[in-house]
Amino acid sequence: MNKRNITYAFIASFAGAIGARAYLAHADTASSTPRGTATVYAGIAADQIEQITPADRIKSIATKVLDTPAPAAIWQALEHGEKVDCLDCIPAVEKLLYVNDAKTREISAWWLRRRIFGVFGEGQAYERTIQTLQTNADATTRAHAAEALGEFLSSGGVQPVATALVNDASPLVRAAAARALARLNNIGPNQELSKAMSDGDPTVRFAAIRAAVHIQSFVDVAAVAQLVSDTSVDVRRQAASALGSMRAKDSVAALITLTSPTAEADPVTRAEAAHSLGLIGDKTAQAALVAAQSDPDMRVRDAATIALRTLG
Fold first, then answer.
1. Residue of 260, 233, 228, 266 whose CA lies nearest to 244
2. Is residue 198 domain-resident?
3. Which of 213, 222, 147, 158 has its CA nearest to residue 186?
């Protein structure tokens, strides 16, 4: 090492030692200088700094919800109160599971599921939600209860939600139960999700197909494939999309049929079918995709062109 490098090393070492002594002296001094967050936010008005929601504020939001024109204040209170320990707050937040605003219901379930003590257990909020799903006379309330059980992300909710999916008298509740199973990543203990694809109401069939795409254990391709000829265009469209997501090679023939305007009047469904054929990658679909490039609708032509590129 030459003299210049030795000199630089000595200076750096000396400066570091001085800095360390200054830090230790400052750390050992019991001064009133604010540290941590207070130091970072020094000079900023207190009302401009995000504060943890007080427990009293959380307890009061349920009584004020009807007087609040926008739910943003409720979302803020619960998000800022994520780590507030307040068992007395649970009944107040539980009421929010049944309000009209979907986002408020979702964030309320999120807040509650982080409180194992006081929410999950006999006689507690979780059990009351199950009872509401099973016994409440109002269909909308039961549907909200099903949603909440899905958002709680507890496996204990699978059975009551699956039962509601096939047994509840209201299609509103059955569709909510299908969405809840998707959140729980479960097809139901007795393949209830597959059974729901034969439901008499198209909104339930639609919800069941959408749920299936998000559930890892769902493999009942046949139940989805039968819906490509459904009377509801929304169901056909969703079925065509789902078959591509599932890479369902056994459904290629059905999807080929859907790409033809003589068989499928809805251009969005034809485009979804073409897109799914590209995802599946079966070259037996090549002729149908070439024909779809002459479709009267630009969306179908574009989907067919992109799909053909994937076939090679």
1. 228
2. no
3. 158
For residue range 206-265, what is the model confidence (pLDDT) as tens digits? Answer: 999 999 999 999 999 999 999 999 999 999 999 999 999 999 999 999 999 999 999 999
Structure tokens at 307: 């799909």
* 105-114 per-position pLDDT tens digit: 999 999 999 8
Evaluate whether 126 touches 119 at the Cβ level (below 8 Å): yes
User: What is the extent of the structural domain holding 259?
Assistant: 230-312
Question: How far apart are the two ends of the chain, measured CA to CA in Å?
Answer: 62
Residue 292 lies inside a defined structural domain of this protein:
yes
pLDDT at 23: 37
Least confident interval from 1-5, 136-140, 245-249: 1-5
> Cα separations (Å) of 115 from 152, 186, 237?
10, 23, 40
- 79: phi then psi, degrees, rounded to nearest 5: -65, -40
Residue 87 lies in a domain: no
What is the value of pTM for the model shown? Answer: 0.78
Domain-embedded: residue 180: no
